[in-house]
Amino acid sequence: MTNLQMNKSTMAYTLCAIALLALPFGYDNRTILFLITQVFIFGIFAMSYDLLLGFTGIVSFGHAMFFGIGAYSVSIILDRNEPTMFYLVIGAIVAMAIAGLVSFIAGILTLRLKSHFYAMLTLALAGLFLVAAEKWRSLTKGNDGFVLQIPELFRDRTNLYLTCLISLIVLFFLVRRFTQSPLGRILMAIRENEQRVESIGFDIMHYKVIASVVSGVVASFAGVLYILSLRFVDTSVFATEVTLDALLMTIIGGVGTLIGPIIGAGIIEFAHHWLSELSDVHWIFERWIILFGIIYILAVIFFPRGIVGSLMHMWGKKRYKKHNQTKNEQKKVAS
Amino acid sequence: MDTILETKDITIAFGGHVAVDEVSVQIPEKQFTSVIGPNGAGKTTFFNLLSGQLRPTKGDIYFKGESITKLSPTKRTRKGIGRSFQITNVFPNLTVLENVRLAVQSKKQVRFQMLKHFKSYKDQEEKALELLGEVLLKDKANSLASNLAHGEKRKLEIAMLLALETEILLLDEPTAGMSLEEVPAILEVIHNIKRQGDRTIVLIEHKMDMILDLSDQVLVLFNGQLLAQGTPEDIMDNETVQSAYLGGLYDDNSA
Ligand SMILES: Nc1ncnc2c1ncn2[C@@H]1O[C@H](COP(=O)(O)OP(=O)(O)OP(=O)(O)O)[C@@H](O)[C@H]1O
Ligand SMILES: [Mg+2]
């Protein structure tokens, strides 16, 4: 039965994917397509955050750092070399390698300690990267940032859309498999009860560091795609808002559901877009972060499972009831 | 008879309170040892020292002659010291089956597989279901652990411990708080392990009839100290134990 359900959800995802793949061929509102591309990119980013927060129970306050590492690595490499596919790939590899290394170091330094140390260290490191990006002007051109050339292929908006979507799909299925693997199950157990995981014979440190590294690497890839979509980089990629966005997307979509953060990314990106348009009406809409602060608080209080989490919960309850009903009926028949 | 586990003067203090005080004992291999003592005597703390949840402030612990004092709980479990917890300690938002399957996974040393689906390890699931059957919890396999009643959580604890197939089983009041109908099943499981005769069991219990029935050796803890050590008969006849403890025990048992 569970196998059937699994196939059902895989099928639903596949249908969504096909619809999204077809979309740019029948619909050509450039603004909206660009916005959806952003959703894909932040979907990847939020998904990587969920891997930490939702699956392993690790809180990071500096996830923007990996996004920024991805963005700057690829920008600098493309800027200093020919903007070809080759250098883009090199840039992406460098991005993921640096992100992997940084998350590995942050992990081994703090994941042995109480959980808030990781949160604090990532916050501090993200701050450090932000300052470095501001001050190391020869490399980053400081606060002004810089415009860059990207490979021919990605200058076409549809190609970029498809690349981001395919990246999201591939990463989603990979990360989903990762969370459903024996190792992923250990991560979930760590979220539930670290001490017990140790006691049944798994070394939790290894797993937390692996989660940190996988999450950091995936996040940096989102940063790479982000730069392709903007063709411009500045220090805002390291800003705390970026981390906050990931947190919001994850919480609103549903912590620990993987698909939830992607949906959350859609909601936040579109809401951001429409609210900024409303800023002509009233200035409050420009301060969308205030609005989201409020939504965030309301969500945590009234909707702690997020959208997908709540749906799954409701569906699970129904299934449970049905299950019990059939059981009772069987009993009646038997007696 | 070989000693499998030995402590030498292990001591632990919380602030000023010495919870385990220079306890030196030998646990003989493949025997049944019980630990008794009034509430707060330090029994659970003693287990925490053996399994590595706590480090002693003084003293050493030896497993098969080798010091394990500095080893983590993970390493001790892998060496063969498994335990159950008095205050049930499971994975609340995972299913009962998944709780046990994770312990089976650990036993099978599937530690870093991250590409295959966990369900493709059919043997793990089968083993977990078999263990749930043993503790009469199979019908709850797909419930969340957090939805179990107290007694059922205890059974789950035991199934998880059994899944590890460790040489030593440390059982911390496995039947405490269970309803009367539930106790026999757990007793049966314990009897079975004892009958197989290839494992060392250390049991913390308050129920005297159970202890007399099962034990080869009894340790009496009192205020963190080892008050007595001997066969169940010796302990029953021991006057210090009688006056210091046993009277009190029956009191709080009836309460
Ligand atoms: N982590 C801790 N910090 C401080 N004090 C502790 C800690 N663990 C145990 N103690 C204290 O050590 C003493 C022994 O506690 P322990 O739980 O080992 O008793 P016990 O013999 O298992 O009792 P019970 O029969 O009630 O389970 C108690 O006074 C308890 O309050
Ligand atoms: Mg105790």
UniProtKB/TrEMBL annotation, chain A:
Respond yes or no to whether keyword Cell wall biogenesis/degradation is given for this record: no
Q: Which residues cross the membrane?
A: 6-25, 32-49, 55-78, 85-109, 115-133, 160-178, 209-230, 242-268, 288-312
Task: Spell out the molecular function terms from Gene Ontology.
Answer: branched-chain amino acid transmembrane transporter activity
The UniProt entry, under Pfam families, shows:
BPD_transp_2
Q: How does it sit in the membrane?
A: Multi-pass membrane protein
**Per its UniProt entry, which superkingdom is the organism in?**
Bacteria
Which keywords appear in this protein's UniProt record, sorted alphabetically? Cell membrane, Membrane, Transmembrane, Transmembrane helix
One GO cellular component this record assigns the protein to is: plasma membrane
The main place the protein resides is membrane
**Localization in the cell:** Cell membrane
Which InterPro entries does the UniProt record give?
ABC_transp_permease, LivM-like
Matching PANTHER family, A to Z?
ABC TRANSPORTER ATP-BINDING PROTEIN, HIGH-AFFINITY BRANCHED-CHAIN AMINO ACID TRANSPORT SYSTEM PERMEASE
- Protein's name according to its UniProt entry: Branched-chain amino acid ABC transporter permease
- Organism, per UniProt? Pontibacillus marinus BH030004 = DSM 16465
Q: Tell me the classification of the organism that encodes this protein.
A: Bacteria, Bacillati, Bacillota, Bacilli, Bacillales
Automatic annotation (TrEMBL), chain B:
Asked if the keyword Nucleotide-binding belongs to this entry, the reply reads yes
Query: Annotated Gene Ontology MF terms?
Result: ATP binding; ATP hydrolysis activity
- UniProt keywords, alphabetically: ATP-binding, Nucleotide-binding, Transport
Quote the InterPro entries the UniProt record gives: AAA+_ATPase (IPR003593), ABC_AA/LPS_Transport (IPR051120), ABC_transporter-like_ATP-bd (IPR003439), ABC_transporter-like_CS (IPR017871), BCA_ABC_TP_C (IPR032823), P-loop_NTPase (IPR027417)
What domain of life is recorded for the organism?
Bacteria
Please give the Pfam families that the UniProt record associates with this protein.
Answer: ABC_tran, BCA_ABC_TP_C
Q: Name one GO cellular component term.
A: plasma membrane
Chain segments annotated as transmembrane: none
SMART domains of this UniProt entry? AAA
In this chain the ABC transporter domain maps to 5-248
Which protein, by its recorded name, is this? Amino acid ABC transporter ATP-binding protein
Gene source species: Pontibacillus marinus BH030004 = DSM 16465
